[in-house]
Amino acid sequence: MANTKQRGLIGEPAPDDAPPEGLNGDVVDVPAVVEIPAAPDLVDDEKLQNAIAVAERRFAFTEAVKKMALARTSPHHWAKYPRGEGYIFYLTGEGATNLIKGFGVQVINQRSKKLWSEDELGKYYIWIYTADVYVPVFDLHLEGIEGRCSQRKAFFAKAGNEWRPTSEIDEANIMADAQTDLWRNVIRRTFGIGYETEETIAEAKVDTSKVAAPSFKKGGRKGSGMIKAKFKSTCAACGKTIAKGEEIYYDRQEKKAYHPSCAPKDDGGEDKAEEADAETTTEEPPAADADQRAKLITAMTESAEALGMKQADLEKFKRDIWGQAKKLDEATVEELDKLYSRLLDLENAAAEKGAA
Amino acid sequence: MLDLAKALNDERGKARIHPCHVNRASEIGHPCLEYLRLARVAWDKRLAPDPTLASIFREGNLTERDCVQMLLGLGFEVYEQQRDGVIKGRNGESLISWHIDWKTRDPETSNGIPVEHKRVSPFLFPKLETPDDLFNSDRVHVRKWPGQLQTYMLGAECEKSLMLFRNAWTGVYRQIVFRLDYGYAEGLLSKAEQVNAAVENERPLPKLEEAAVCFVCPLRHVCTPAVFGDALAVGSDTFEGWLARREELKAAIAEAGAAEIENEKKALDGRIKEYLGEHGGRVVTTSFLAELKPTSRKATPATTYDRLVIQKVGE
User: Fold this and answer.
1) Structure confidence by residue, pLDDT tens digits, A15-41
2) Are B205 and B195 in contact (CB under 8 A)?
3) In what order do the strands lie in the sheet with A122-135?
């Protein structure tokens, strides 16, 4: 008689109740029920506690080294810019290289590339410097840290309100600035030091009164000076209306607009509309247009009220101008400016009709 | 409003970058070969001196003229002012161009001696006494000076040369006499040949990659060097304990001044220095950063020793 044993699944008896075969054809004993052992503990409580303790120690160590690093800086390693009621302190390139050198940071595999882009002024270039970093004291490896600088950076590209021609911009300065930006980013990413409050700097016993606070040339994007009014406003001295597009003196510090003849004089008897010099060559602060947006929104609201526009009318007007429904808070400065210009046109047209 | 200061500062702060097609005597002593090559091929990308530095250079030129006037008034011979030349290689190629301030006459031999006038910072002035002080300076621009003079001596065929230092604060002078060192001068010539070959073949040369030099190099953005900060090890808990105990002892000594405490502190200092020596000289822990700083005493005889410097977190 032929051997007609059938295989059964492991744990199941063979259909004919005969013991199943093993891999080599041997008959093997397989229990009817296989007990699956309980899953092992994935989290060992003691190991977890140790890991937490190690992490806490590492964190305390990192914070301590950061404090030591701050204490090793000097006033000339920082620049301060107004922020609200006080200042924000910004680590300069010299400060960053001081910390790189003093704390054993290794910046390796540095490479650079030049990218081209285009805007309404024409083609312009951006230099990007990239490097990998190893910090032995933290046993920290980071790759692809970048620093960049554009030909359009106002500090290099503008003289007052005018854009310099490309031939007058020294590309070496753009390249060096991008590399300095890389070194600052190295420290920011590894030590967490970059923008600090006055309290943090003072705790590190750096004399904040000796930290440079750059001022900028009159008429520059960041400085006080003569500009064309972007919207209808009021002279802070005589109280009379300033029309949009009118030549005014804008005091950026006080955020006030004046007729040129009303511009206040400083304590030395000099007209504030005189040129002020850039005192340092430190980098410009981050841009903030919140104030401009707020003023535009206020002016637009007044204009809409003057025209007798209800909210629904204003919403429709916005959709017509912008091509989409959008809240005022979400619009850019350019969009707000465009909308306000159209409202002013309507006001002027209504005024002329009334006069006629 | 009349602003004389601004007009003067604007004028003094002007700086220009000049083309560089031949190795220069003033640069050939630079320790980085790649810098010397880039100074030739990327001279137009070189960062111009900032207005303050340009003003310092101008001040140096003014004091040099003042010095020449004084020497002439004292009866010294001053000739071949601003004379220049080029040292040629075996195949007639230009190796190093040179440009001396002036020559004066050695009264003993009647031979001409090239003189180089340098106006130096009052902090640097006391450190410049021997040629070795220049070679070992931590400032790269000072390390270039011996090469400059050796090139002058080769080019002008003189056995001796003189570097005159003027203290920028007090106007006091100091001089260092250099003798022609043929071995060193040959080294400069072969360096110039290496640079020439690299320029012609458009291939890079080895980079120095020394952080203190690279961070202030006017061609760092073209070179993109790797930079390595000063080595810093992480200390053990035992080492941290020694440092903490040392702080306690210091406080106790300040209070009581007891000899036993002082002895314990000295013993601890020895162990700390030994640990630092075994771990690269610089160690950080959670509360301290300790390092050994080489320090020299300019007494007679001059000595050097490792000074222990400890920074506590929060200080």
Assistant:
1) 555 555 555 566 666 666 777 776 666
2) yes
3) A140-150, A122-135, A106-119, B227-228
CA-CA distance, B58 to B37, in Å (whole number)? 27
- Residue A248: beta bridge partners? A227
Q: How many residues would you count in chain B?
A: 315
ipTM of the complex in this document: 0.80
Cα–Cα distances (Å) from A11 to A21, A32, A54, A277, in that order, read 12, 5, 46, 90
Distance of alpha carbon A201 from alpha carbon B15, whole angstroms:
35
Q: Within the 32-61 window of chain B, which residues sit less than 8 Å (CB to CB) from chain A?
A: 44-48, 50
| A-B contacts (CB, under 8 Å) | 93
Give the span between the Cα atoms of A92 and B151, in whole angstroms.
38
User: Strand pairing of A86-91 and A256-258?
Assistant: unpaired
pLDDT at A292 over 80: no
pLDDT at A270: 40
Report the first-to-last Cα separation within chain B, whole angstroms.
46
Token look-up 């001081």 returns A98
- Which DSSP letter does residue A128 get? E
Collapsing DSSP to helix, strand or coil, B227 comes out as strand
B50–A281: do the CB atoms touch at under 8 Å?
yes
Q: For an interface test with B, which of A72, A100, A135, A274 has the most B Cβ atoms less than 10 Å from its Cβ?
A: A100
Q: What is residue A239's three-state secondary structure?
A: coil
Query: Is this structure's pTM higher than 0.95?
Result: no
b/e burial code for range A333-353 (CB count within 10 A of at least 16 → b): eebbbebbebbbeebeeeeee
Segment A91-127, tens digit of pLDDT: 999 999 999 999 999 999 999 999 999 988 888 999 9
CA distance A246 to chain B (A): 27
Q: Higher pLDDT residue, A154 or B219? A: B219
Question: Is residue A336 within 8 Å of A297, Cβ to Cβ?
Answer: yes
DSSP secondary structure string for all residues of B233-286:
EEPPHHHHHHHHHHHHHHHHHHHH--HHHHHHHHHHHHHHHHHHHHTTTEEE-S
Name the residue type at position A101.
Answer: K
Chain A residues with CB under 8 Å of B215 CB are 97, 100-101
Q: What does the alpha-carbon distance between residue A147 and residue A184 come to, in Å, rounded to a whole number? A: 8
Q: Report CA torsion sign: B118, B123, B129, B134.
A: negative
